[in-house]
Specification:
The chain is mainly α and 467 residues long. It contains 18 helices and 8 strands.
Length: 467
């Protein structure tokens, strides 16, 4: 926002108000700035661009319908293109917590675009002639249909970045899994020694789980592509040109590359935030999986001497202000913090999803903010954790082997040969004597130590103990 003390005076239905002379927004935006000094956070950038895409598509549709004069439509479209190309990002100034449903942001867009168009046509800021924010930029539209449409378009814009980040983490886990296919180690269930497994299987499971999360996220795209634009106020289609909804959706599909189409019931897309809630739920489920995996990384890397220490994470910063040489798993700690916050954002989205009344959900600005934060935070956190603490991970194979042969869980491999009860006796003796199962098996003549090692490898890698 320009700090120049000069101002211009504008008038609306409530009276006059001074607006900074160099501002591209107008009086209704200025009122919102005064009314809502809440979070100090402006609108999400993807949301701003999505809303401007809607204004551009509307101008095209209204021009095609003959409702908007070609020269005015061209000026509006050119103004939108300037914003979409990165200009005037600082002119979208309304706080995320604002007038219900997002009327303040809708007028912020209308005013900026109108002023840009008028200056292009030889006019001045604040005069709103020949292009008016409501009559021309907002033609055929309402906050009721532009804001929920912008929420969906912004979510669609963020989705590839998030899915790409999670896929990147999954690929890194898969790469490590392939490398460590034959790294045999003790599995742990209930945090107690269990049967032998491989680190490759362990990490491969992380990769599979993350890919499943991506599939679920991608599966939400079709629902998000159904928009209520053209419903105007309350889904009635009031003051819209014939064919406007279809033409605007077609133009948005061209602009965004998404399979945008008019919703079968535009009123429902104003009342219901179900598809956005499903997205939030998928983010929550992803966060829960990431928390679990991050905690596994911290456990496996614990030590280095007194913990498990089966893996070593790349050191990225000193870990203590008092203990020299200490290095902590900071990137996975950060990932946990972000994921916990995402759980909170989902709780907020859930509450706001059911908080709409009758024809409109007035909680949309805050609902969108919570959803967008969750998507951006997860994207950035997953990328950072992958790059800084997963890529370059090293495995201490000797430590894995030492734990494996110290585990009484190896006695399970004998079940099919000597029965559960006899195997349990060997496990008990191993635990009390601290002697490896391997040695006890050889001592009793069940098989040689080398044969037992081969049995362990086949069981861990292939799940085969017979033959």
């Amino acid at each position: 926002m320009n700090t120049n003390t000069e101002s211009r005076t504008e008038r609306d239905s409530l009276g006059e108000l001074k607006v900074p002379a160099q501002a591209w927004y107008g009086i209704q935006t200025a009122r919102a700035v005064v009314n809502f000094p809440i979070s100090g956070r402006g609108p999400d950038r993807d949301f701003v661009l999505a809303h401007v895409h809607i204004k551009r598509a509307a101008a095209v549709a209204n021009r095609e319908a003959g409702w908007l004069k070609p020269e005015l439509a061209t000026a509006v479209i050119d103004a939108c293109d300037r914003i979409l190309n990165g200009e005037l990002a600082d002119q979208f100034v309304v706080d995320r917590f604002q007038a219900g449903a997002g009327t303040s942001h809708n007028m912020n867009s209308n005013e900026v675009i109108a002023n840009l168009a008028n200056v292009t046509l030889g006019g001045e800021r604040g005069t709103y002639t020949p292009v008016h924010p409501n009559d021309h930029v907002n033609m055929g539209q309402s906050t009721n249909d532009t804001i929920p449409t912008a929420l969906r378009l912004a979510a669609l814009a963020k989705l590839p970045r998030l899915c790409g980040a999670v896929t990147g983490m999954a690929e890194e886990y898969a790469r490590i899994a392939a490398r460590e296919r034959d790294t045999v180690k003790s599995a742990r269930t209930h945090l107690q020694d269990a049967v032998p497994t491989t680190l490759g299987r362990e990490f491969g499971a992380y990769a599979w789980t993350l890919r499943r999360c991506v599939v679920r996220l991608e599966g939400l795209r079709p629902a998000l592509c159904e928009i209520g634009l053209g419903g105007s106020a309350a889904g009635t289609g009031l003051n819209t040109a014939p064919g406007y909804a279809e033409a605007a959706a077609h133009e948005l599909a061209r602009l965004t590359g998404e399979a945008i189409l008019p919703a079968a019931d535009p009123a429902a897309q104003m009342q219901s935030m179900h598809d956005l809630q499903r997205l939030s739920s998928a983010l929550r489920d992803l966060a829960l999986e990431l928390i679990r995996i991050a905690n596994d990384m911290r456990l496996l890397a614990s030590g280095p001497r007194t913990g498990l220490g089966e893996i070593r994470l790349p050191p990225v910063q000193p870990g203590s202000s008092i203990m020299p040489g200490k290095v902590n798993p900071v990137m996975f700690e950060m990932l946990n913090m972000v994921c916990y916050q995402v759980l909170g954002q989902d709780a907020a989205v859930s509450a706001m999803t059911q908080a709409g009344q009758l024809e409109l959900n007035v909680m949309m600005p805050a609902l969108g903010s919570a959803l967008f934060d969750a998507m951006d935070w997860l994207t950035n956190a997953v990328r950072a954790a992958t790059a800084r603490n997963l890529t370059g991970l090293q495995v201490d194979r000797e430590r894995c082997r030492a734990f494996l042969h110290a585990s009484v869980g190896l006695a399970t491999l004998l079940n099919t040969r000597i029965g559960y009860a006899a195997a349990a006796e060997i496990a008990k003796e191993s635990e009390h004597s601290a002697r490896p199962v391997r040695d006890l098996v050889a001592e009793r003549g069940l098989m040689s130590a080398e044969e037992f090692d081969e049995l362990v490898l086949r069981a861990a890698r292939d799940g085969v103990v017979a033959g």
